[in-house]
Amino acid sequence: xxxxxxxxxxxxxxxxxxxxxxxxxxxxxxxxxxxxxxxxxxxxxxxxxxxxxxxxxxxxxxxxxxxxxxxxxxxxxxxxxxxxxxxxxxxxxxxxxxxxxxxxxxxxxxxxxxxxxxxxxxxxxxxxxxxxxxxxxxxxxxxxxxxxxxxxxxxxxxxxxxxxxxxxxxxxxxxxxxxxxxxxxxxxxxxxxxxxxxxxxxxxxxxxxxxxxxxxxxxxxxxxxxxxxxxxxxxxxxxxxxxxxxxxxxxxxxxxxxxxxxxxxxxxxxxxxxxxxxxxxxxxxxxxxxxxxxxxxxxxxxxxxxxxxxxxxxxxxxxxxxxxxxxxxxxxxxxxxxxxxxxxxxxxxxxxxxxxxxxxxxxxxxxxxxxxxxxxxxxxxxxxxxx
Amino acid sequence: xxxxxxxxxxxxxxxxxxxxxxxxxxxxxxxxxxxxxxxxxxxxxxxxxxxxxxxxxxxxxxxxxxxxxxxxxxxxxxxxxxxxxxxxxxxxxxxxxxxxxxxxxxxxxxxxxxxxxxxxxxxxxxxxxxxxxxxxxxxxxxxxxxxxxxxxxxxxxxxxxxxxxxxxxxxxxxxxxxxxxxxxxxxxxxxxxxxxxxxxxxxxxxxxxxxxxxxxxxxxxxxxxxxxxxxxxxxxxxxxxxxxxxxxxxxxxxxxxxxxxxx
Lengths: 387, 263
What we know:
The complex is a heterodimer of chains A (about 375) and B (about 260). With about 375 residues, chain A is an alpha+beta fold. Chain A has helices spanning about 35-40, 75-90, 130-145, 170-175, 220-230, 240-255, 260-265, 270-275, 280-290, 340-345, and strands at about 15-25, 30, 50-55, 65-70, 90-95, 110-120, 150-155, 160-165, 180, 185-190, 205, 210-215, 300-305, 310-315, 325-330, 330-335, 350, 360-365. The longest helix of chain A is centred in the middle third of the chain and has 15 residues, at about 130-145. Chain B has 2 domains: about 1-80, no CATH class; about 110-265, 3 Solenoid (Pectate Lyase C-like). The interface between A and B is medium-sized, with 22 and 29 residues.
């Protein structure tokens, strides 16, 4: 097994990959069988060197606590990290992440989870007044960069990432995701081409409640990394996807941008498009590009971004990676291939593709809401279904 | 299935017709059966319950071969195909008809991105919309003229770097503009015909926008009649003009980048 604290002499990775996402907008929870089936159809988009899932709504009994999923190389790494957790967090519950030893995944790190909240009298209070979220981010960055052999791969509330080296369908069996329930699932099948496949390098990448699965290559990684470092994000994982999770944390949580606008920073309209806008819009988009030029993602990408209130599908500005969406009742599906959606939903109400750089945003609604599905984004459909 | 005695495929053979139930079948197995069947003389192949299998009909030859697909086939359908016909009764995904040489792909639904990349012959008829990068790098030579006809609208980069062949955009069900950005950028051969009149000034400066003439129409008529027949549309309505024609203004738009001589 590759050690978690990777010291590979690489800058970042390039990947061809498969993506899937499922959301029930009324937050009705389903188990991991459908997402496993959908991503398994894209088996040949990966090469067995990384598979993973993010699920929202999986820990309702601990919904007020941060659920840390941590990988350890060995007991010593676990003891060192736990010393930090004990000093700084109230740990309400901790346990091994349930796994099923399948013949397909025979080499794995120690996988442990902790439900906890930062202590109010923790030591760092002597120096600063970080809010809980900020302290969690700081702790994740610290463990991932300074604690040898330990890696926090999930740190949100009522959500979790389950990932590792293997094909995603085998990873799903390994974590027994048929026993896990959530209202939103994302999945990733990895085909790393520039870095070794290691447990920490599998998608999704998460921070607090944000999760990202990504197909493509972030050519602007260097610029994005240096920009994030100014805000004390520590890029420890040496994979390009990591920057997307942190940029969105910065834009949405720290700077208070609405999700839609944050997407317009990642895939900013070209200046020639901005030139054609109405004055007010023009001013806004020009300002966004000027302020957040270093947060712009360059290169080919398709991403699915998960957050507690919804799911976003986004392509790069000239659409160099595939993305398809489909809806059926309260469910919306996103995938790299239409067949992946049809594998679990044979006759969707509508199937369409996002336009380059224009996000599809599917938000959750109140359970008693009358509208079955948020169709406002479907007006931008590229493709119309025949069924 | 008789070719290898594998009953799992649920194949049925009668005369030169073969039906294959492709449910949960891996593309390698499916394509092996297709190729072996063609070698053994099967002319008509019906694929049922296809969902996502890649490379269907890649590199196959024979003008008298027809493959009918029920379900959504995977990427790279009909790549390098040389003669046969593929009829898809649903949508298709990406990269169909890449470098196709002859034959025909008929799609009763919508198509994904990069359709007919580098296509050098044959026809691709799409009833609905198509995605980004349709017909890029298409080429033609003498009698060898690849033709793509799209019923709906398309995404950006339509006909980018097009070097030959013909594309027709019918915009049948759309009142809005049916092309995206970078239309015909770098185009240096072939022709694109449109039924919708658009303001071409905001697109490529390397092409000209003209009204199609009689000789254009007599060329188009042949293909549009076949398209109408395939999709059960009125041929008369389809052929009714005016059509607009987009052709490159230069066969070497980038000559100045690579040579010292001014062309």
